[in-house]
Amino acid sequence: MGDSSGSVSIDMEALSPRGQEHLVETTYGPVCVAVCGDPDKPALITYPDLALNYMFCFQGLLFCPEASSLLLHNFCIYHISPLGHELGAPVISVDAPLLSADDLADQIIEVLNYFGLGAVMCMGVTAGAYILTLFAMKYRQRVLGLILVSPLCQAPSWSEWLCNKVMSNLLYYYGMCGVVKELLLKRYFSKEVRGNAQVPESDIVQECRRLLCERQSTNIWRFLEAINGRVDLSEGLRKLQCRTLIFIGESSCYHSEAVHMTTKLDRRYGALVEVQGSGSLVTEEQPQAMVIPMEYFLMGYGLYRPTQSISPRSPLSPTRISPELFSPENMGLKLKPIKTRLSL
């Protein structure tokens, strides 16, 4: 609010990546939503990957100065947590029915209605990206655009299904044991940050390992069961007419999945950004690589106008980005598949 001297103070708590949490009652059970920013601004909803909460899944991105100014100053962010994934979540009752991916997508519309939101921008990571894509297909009028990180769009392959089943059984009978943690860390991160016998784990992996120890294993099991039972969305992607920006880490185990999804989207509305030196969790490993593509993606909505052509703090430069990204077509209504590489 302004004071008598004409100066302006900023509510830093409202802009903090950790927002005010609301427990929203839905048909499918209570869901925790953390709200960050000014509710009068356009809405951006986020959905994290399996076993993660918004603070870890999007913390690196929102603590990046350029991304913070781009997102927190232009959106009110609504971080949706999968059932029982929020900090301090209680164990979901064994009597509660298992939810499907369809149920989780339908739960989002109830969250939007609770906050009185219209059409929203969506950002999701891997399993969360699948839920938001399914939501966009079911409720097209409520989605402005999709920003997807290492997304899933096909039914699980036999190898993924088997790996998930092993994790599911271990979670159910033994909790968050060492094997499950290693499988999840491999899912999230590249080899470079996971370390080896000669190189220690990076701080981000150590922090994630600590976070996983605090998770309620049966709650994670429920989300995993929903994702492992997902259906193939490929055929419906062509009809998805909201613009879609896809980020994929070069070392991600879902690299082929993201490429497949790009080929199934209408070429006028989809763009692929490949980030070198990153696993699936680009938001934590290489958040700076997301800034410039998001700047130009959002310019087409009139939501952000950069004051200079390239952010001086970003590791990307014009010579490292496909010229297609700078075309008027891609800054407006049409996006072509492109690749962007970021060197470590």
TrEMBL record:
Keyword entries, A-Z: Cytoplasm, Growth regulation, Membrane, Transmembrane, Transmembrane helix
GO BP field: regulation of auxin polar transport; response to jasmonic acid
Compartmental location: Cytoplasm
Leader sequence segment: none
Transmembrane annotation, as ranges: 114-137
Principal place of residence: cytoplasm
InterPro entries documented for this protein: AB_hydrolase_fold, NDRG
One GO CC term, this protein: cytoplasm
One Pfam family linked to the record: Ndr
The UniProt record lists the keyword Transmembrane helix: yes
Entry-linked PANTHER family: N-MYC DOWNSTREAM REGULATED (PTHR11034)
Homology family: Belongs to the NDRG family.
Protein name: Pollen-specific protein SF21
Organism per entry: Brassica carinata
Taxonomy of the source species: Eukaryota, Viridiplantae, Streptophyta, Embryophyta, Tracheophyta
